[in-house]
């Protein structure tokens, strides 16, 4: 992950080819030099030699591999057969593999499986664990039969070894018991397999987590637990939400959408308008509306600061028109009287169904904190894939036209590229007119699940998990969005950190 994955894709391909080459070389050399040539006869308990009745399927799976006639190479038979065939032989064949062969096969296969598991190819771990465990169990059975002289069936030990190895690796218990009972078609093995898996799980938990849990932590996947701890109910949605919102207006210029999509990695954006009805009261310090400031004041980017960040990103675009947009805006310095006129126009402007608010109408840096953090009325959520699709298909209208002239896309057209939606970096920006406007209201989700800022974490967690959500907006009593909750905000580590901050604050 540190040395291969950050590099180009062909480096991952070279790593896969290297693993394949080394695996082939090791298997071939080990089978040729360390494998034993064994015949199809096996000694019985009375020291007489009898011919083992070998079925047709066994004859078709054994590998001679440089051995004389009527003999076969036991290590090549394990290595050069499919994994399910090798497992079948370890489970059902008696006296056909030497302890030395089983030991070498177990060690080599274990090391190769560990190495292959990290390669950038869709390789599994379930069957290789079964094969390694079956070989180890078969080895224990051979040692007991040869050295101690116990008359046992080696296939049963191979089954128990496979269960122990796989159970200790993936920490599965009940489901793995059912799988092994179904595969063996022997219900009598249920109790010993279950005991074996429980002991394997307890032993593995004594040292570390399961292999899948370890990889979840390594890759930073925000996996949610089944439920939250009781102590977490001391937190509310306002404590864990992300107040630093990147939002879009119902009618937004193409230049702003492109800037947002290229400078963020979010998968959904709130669609908002400024709360016109409460704005004048907000300026006077209305308590209800100014609660919005309490949730956002500490770390929310101001609209002016966000506009500066978007403008800076526009300067690197290939389109000269896009590059010059922000320069033109910064070159025109509006007098203080004009700024007051713009403010008055923003307060009095009304558009149906949503006001046409553009990024170039952001407030001045000289505005006070309360003026910058106006209440934002929440109207819905729109996905990144939807915005990119609208830009690629040219769904927009001119500044001097009505939004009714904007082309309309059907649901089939919006989901045509599922699940591999195009990326914003694949878009030819030179073909875009930055002054065109996109009406996102026909494509947004106007009624997503929302929670109140005072909702307990357990309720937020249950809603998020049971409904399979990816984004959960936090909306106050007057319909203003104050934050958003994602899967990351509900992970156990994040909740613990917020709980510690809560105790420090108290």
Provide the descriptors you would attach to this structure in a database record.
two-stranded antiparallel sheet; 22 helices; about 50% helix; single chain; ATP binding; Cl-channel/antiporter; about 500 residues; mainly alpha
Rg calc: 33 Å
Q: Which residues form runs of ≥5 with pLDDT under 50? A: 42-55, 279-304, 328-340, 342-368
- From the N-terminal CA to the C-terminal CA, the straight-line distance is 41 Å
Biggest pleated-sheet summary: 2 strands, antiparallel
Number of separate strands: 10
Average predicted confidence as pLDDT:
77
What spatial form do the alpha-carbon principal axes imply? elongated
* Helix content, binned percent: 40-55%
Structural class: mainly alpha
User: What amount of the residues lies in strands?
Assistant: 5-15%
- Count of helical segments? 22
**Strand numbers in spatial order across the main sheet:** 1-4
Protein name: Chloride channel protein
Main location: membrane
GO molecular function, one term: chloride channel activity
Organism: Anguilla anguilla (European freshwater eel)
Quick synopsis:
With 506 residues, the protein is mainly alpha-helical. The protein has helices at 9-33, 56-61, 74-79, 83-92, 99-117, 126-148, 154-170, 174-184, 190-207, 211-219, 237-240, 254-263, 276-283, 287-296, 303-314, 320-331, 336-348, 369-372, 384-392, 411-414, 457-466, 492-505, and strands at residues 37-39, 41-43, 49-51, 71-73, 251-253, 268-274, 376-383, 437-439, 471-475, 481-486. The strands form five sheets. The protein has a two-stranded antiparallel ribbon with strand order 1-4.
């Amino acid at each position: 992950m540190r040395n291969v994955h950050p590099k180009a894709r062909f480096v991952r391909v070279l790593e896969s080819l290297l693993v394949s080459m080394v695996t082939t070389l090791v298997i071939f050399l080990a089978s040729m030099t360390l494998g034993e040539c064994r015949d199809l006869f096996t000694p019985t308990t009375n020291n007489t030699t009898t011919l083992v009745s070998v079925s047709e399927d066994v004859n078709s799976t054994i590998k001679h591999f440089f051995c004389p006639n009527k003999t076969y190479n036991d290590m090549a038979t394990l290595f050069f057969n499919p994994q399910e065939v090798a497992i079948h032989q370890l489970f059902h064949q008696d006296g056909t593999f030497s302890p030395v062969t089983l030991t070498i096969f177990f060690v080599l296969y274990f090391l190769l499986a560990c190495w292959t598991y990290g390669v950038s190819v869709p390789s599994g771990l379930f069957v290789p664990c079964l094969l390694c465990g079956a070989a180890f169990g078969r080895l224990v059975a051979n040692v007991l039969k040869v050295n101690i002289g116990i008359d046992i069936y080696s296939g049963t030990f191979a089954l128990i070894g496979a269960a122990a190895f796989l159970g200790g690796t993936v920490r599965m218990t009940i489901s793995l018991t059912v799988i092994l009972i179904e595969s063996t078609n022997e219900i009598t093995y249920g109790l010993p397999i279950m005991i074996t898996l429980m002991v394997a799980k307890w032993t593995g938990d004594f040292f570390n987590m399961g292999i899948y849990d370890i990889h979840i932590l390594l890759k930073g996947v925000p996996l949610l637990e089944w439920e939250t701890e009781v102590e977490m109910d001391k937190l509310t949605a306002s404590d864990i939400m992300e107040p630093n919102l990147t939002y879009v207006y119902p009618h937004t210029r193409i230049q702003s959408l492109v800037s947002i999509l290229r400078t963020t990695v979010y998968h959904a954006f709130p669609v908002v308008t400024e709360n016109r009805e409460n704005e004048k009261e907000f300026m006077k310090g209305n308590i209800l509306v100014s609660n919005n400031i309490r949730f956002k004041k500490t770390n929310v980017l101001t609209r002016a600061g966000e506009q500066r960040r978007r403008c800076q990103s526009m300067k690197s675009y290939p389109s000269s028109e896009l590059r010059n947009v922000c320069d033109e805006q910064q070159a025109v310095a509006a007098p203080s009287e004009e700024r007051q006129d713009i403010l008055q126009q923003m307060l009095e402007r009304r558009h149906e169904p949503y006001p046409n608010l553009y990024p170039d109408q952001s407030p001045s840096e000289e505005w006070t904190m309360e003026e910058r953090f106006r209440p934002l009325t929440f109207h819905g959520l729109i996905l990144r894939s939807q915005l990119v699709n609208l830009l690629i298909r040219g769904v927009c209208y001119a500044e001097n036209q009505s939004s009714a002239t904007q082309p309309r896309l059907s649901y089939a057209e919006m989901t045509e590229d599922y699940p591999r939606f195009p990326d914003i970096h694949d878009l030819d920006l030179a073909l875009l007119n930055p002054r065109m406007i996109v009406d996102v209201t026909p494509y947004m989700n106007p009624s997503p699940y929302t929670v109140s800022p005072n909702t307990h974490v357990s309720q937020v967690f249950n809603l998020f998990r049971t409904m399979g959500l990816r984004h959960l907006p936090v909306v106050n009593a007057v319909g203003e969005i104050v934050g958003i909750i994602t899967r990351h905000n509900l992970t156990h580590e994040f909740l613990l950190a917020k709980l510690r901050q809560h105790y420090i604050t108290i």
